[in-house]
């Protein structure tokens, strides 16, 4: 096995050009990001207890990817990767931000990061966001400082803060969870209808908070599924997607509107991640592998052999027509590909002097392979801790200590992993049979690759050479991902941060910080 570490280009734009008509009429873009939705949570990915006909229809008319990975198995870092095109570690936002935590309240996505919203705005797009932000709650880090013209929604997890905003105005002090999908759907369809009357194209980042807990179904969907409240919530979410697509068709702009549907990470229960092992919070496949559907009627056309009910066909190249027949793709892609893909779709080069960890997927729609090799390594970080590496079919889980683990890590089996564990995902998608002893060369090469990438993207309590800064109100203070390590800061710094917090949030009541574990070296 000859592994080559792919070094991302500073500005990578693959040779995929839009047809002249598309260039004259740039596509609208709706990026739908659900929360904690697993691989088998929707019909065309294997769900049996819920019905999701509208999401299934997106797949039926587009491309359904079966080997898509998010950049993290929790919310904040995963969202940072989607919006910046970089591993969360590179973009400086690799922890799950909770504004109630002493170590997190002053952190966020760095204002110098270039988001996909800013990329669209630079090209004359109206940019809107509806839903969950989770990339910092201080004014310096909010959506409208990161390229969005408008914001509407519950920006945090309900348990972090239940407040709901329309721009800067608080609409609800406590979000009515049973009305959440209805509220979002009304705003999304309003944006579509309003934008259809205007000359400029639009980008809508629709980041629904569901099916993250807590959730409640609307009255019309209670008891509608065979999977309890969660299933009811899923079916209502699907209804909202149907209303969104109906609004696009009614406004006459559906054909040249890109719709992407995916999730930020895996589910909290493995039954929604099948056939893969693991859940949210861990680096088994179930934490990272989620649905990804790409829908663009102007570029992706139907195949005569398509079987709508099963959502299963083979890819079909449409020759030189610039069209691609819809179906299923097994090509391995990831969250960092979204930024380059959408940039290429609007004819924009990637910003200079910035490293991107993905590439445009648009060549696939003309039957052209991606530029990166099939065995391009993918790195599974959990916060600062590099836990696994995949190259082609091989996935190596790396040794780790308890101290390196973020507090949310649920992988008890590997909590103190002393020896590397190797799986062949082609023959063992459930990651159940360790073949490390039979493949020592592969193990050694991936171990060496891990040592190399840590130098660039970091490790627990170690900054990497290529990591960009984390957004912080105190940029000279070291970033502490976990409360357990808060006491590594000097007392004067801790006191200054607490004073600033009290100034900004007079009604805040300080929470007791748990000290470091005594066995930490």
TrEMBL record:
<dbReference type="InterPro" id="IPR017850">
    <property type="entry name" value="Alkaline_phosphatase_core_sf"/>
</dbReference>
<dbReference type="Pfam" id="PF14707">
    <property type="entry name" value="Sulfatase_C"/>
</dbReference>
<dbReference type="InterPro" id="IPR050738">
    <property type="entry name" value="Sulfatase"/>
</dbReference>
<feature type="domain" description="Sulfatase N-terminal">
    <location>
        <begin position="27"/>
        <end position="347"/>
    </location>
</feature>
<keyword id="KW-0106">Calcium</keyword>
<dbReference type="Pfam" id="PF00884">
    <property type="entry name" value="Sulfatase"/>
</dbReference>
<keyword id="KW-0732">Signal</keyword>
<feature type="signal peptide">
    <location>
        <begin position="1"/>
        <end position="22"/>
    </location>
</feature>
<dbReference type="InterPro" id="IPR000917">
    <property type="entry name" value="Sulfatase_N"/>
</dbReference>
<comment type="similarity">
    <text>Belongs to the sulfatase family.</text>
</comment>
<keyword id="KW-0479">Metal-binding</keyword>
<feature type="region of interest" description="Disordered">
    <location>
        <begin position="498"/>
        <end position="521"/>
    </location>
</feature>
<dbReference type="InterPro" id="IPR024607">
    <property type="entry name" value="Sulfatase_CS"/>
</dbReference>
<protein>
    <submittedName>
        <fullName>Sulfatase</fullName>
    </submittedName>
</protein>
<keyword id="KW-0378">Hydrolase</keyword>
């Amino acid at each position: 096995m000859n592994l080559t570490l792919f070094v991302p280009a500073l500005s990578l734009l693959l040779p995929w050009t839009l047809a002249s008509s598309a260039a004259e009429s740039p596509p609208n873009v709706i990026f739908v990001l659900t929360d904690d939705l697993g691989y088998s949570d929707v019909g065309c990915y294997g769900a049996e207890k819920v019905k999701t006909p509208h999401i299934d229809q997106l797949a039926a008319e587009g491309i359904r990817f079966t080997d898509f990975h998010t950049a993290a198995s929790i919310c904040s870092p995963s969202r940072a990767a989607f919006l910046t095109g970089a591993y969360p570690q590179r973009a400086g936002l690799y922890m799950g931000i909770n504004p109630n935590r002493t170590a997190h309240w002053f952190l966020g996505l760095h204002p110098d990061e270039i988001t996909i919203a800013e990329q669209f705005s630079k090209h004359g797009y109206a940019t809107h966001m509806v839903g969950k932000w989770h990339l910092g709650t201080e004014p310096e880090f909010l959506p409208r400082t990161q390229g969005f013209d408008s914001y509407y929604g519950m920006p945090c997890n309900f348990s972090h803060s239940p407040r709901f905003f329309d721009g800067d105005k608080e609409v609800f002090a406590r979000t009515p969870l049973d009305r959440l999908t209805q509220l979002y759907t009304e705003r999304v369809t309003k944006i579509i209808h309003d934008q259809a009357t205007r000359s400029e194209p639009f980008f809508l980042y629709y980041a629904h908070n569901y099916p993250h807990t807590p959730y409640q179904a609307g009255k019309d969907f209670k008891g509608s599924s065979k999977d309890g409240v969660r299933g009811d919530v899923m079916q209502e979410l699907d209804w909202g997607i149907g209303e969104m697509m109906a609004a696009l068709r009614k406004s006459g702009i559906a054909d040249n509107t890109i719709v992407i549907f995916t999730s930020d990470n895996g589910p909290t229960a493995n039954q929604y991640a099948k056939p893969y092992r693991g859940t949210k919070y861990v680096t088994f496949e179930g934490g990272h592998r989620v649905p990804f559907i790409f829908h663009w009627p102007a570029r992706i056309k139907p195949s005569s052999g398509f079987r709508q009910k099963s959502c299963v066909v083979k890819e079909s190249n449409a020759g030189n027509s610039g069209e691609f027949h819809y179906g299923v793709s097994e090509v391995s892609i990831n969250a960092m590909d979204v930024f380059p893909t959408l940039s290429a779709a609007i004819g924009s080069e990637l910003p200079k002097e910035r490293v991107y960890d993905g590439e445009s997927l648009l060549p696939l729609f003309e039957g052209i392979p991606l530029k990166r090799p099939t065995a391009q390594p993918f790195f599974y970080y959990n916060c600062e801790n590099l836990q696994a590496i995949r190259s082609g079919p091989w996935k190596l889980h790396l040794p780790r200590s308890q101290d390196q683990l973020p507090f949310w890590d649920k992988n008890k089996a590997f909590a103190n992993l002393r020896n590397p564990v190797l799986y062949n995902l082609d023959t063992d998608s459930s990651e159940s049979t360790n073949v490390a002893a039979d493949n020592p060369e592969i193990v050694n090469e991936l171990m060496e690759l891990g040592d190399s990438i840590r130098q660039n993207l970091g490790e627990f309590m170690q900054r990497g050479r290529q990591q960009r800064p984390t957004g912080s109100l105190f940029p000279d203070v070291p970033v502490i991902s976990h409360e357990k390590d808060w006491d590594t800061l000097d007392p004067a710094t801790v006191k200054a941060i607490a004073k600033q917090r009290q100034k900004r949030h007079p009604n805040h009541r300080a929470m007791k910080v748990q000290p470091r574990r005594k066995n930490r070296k």
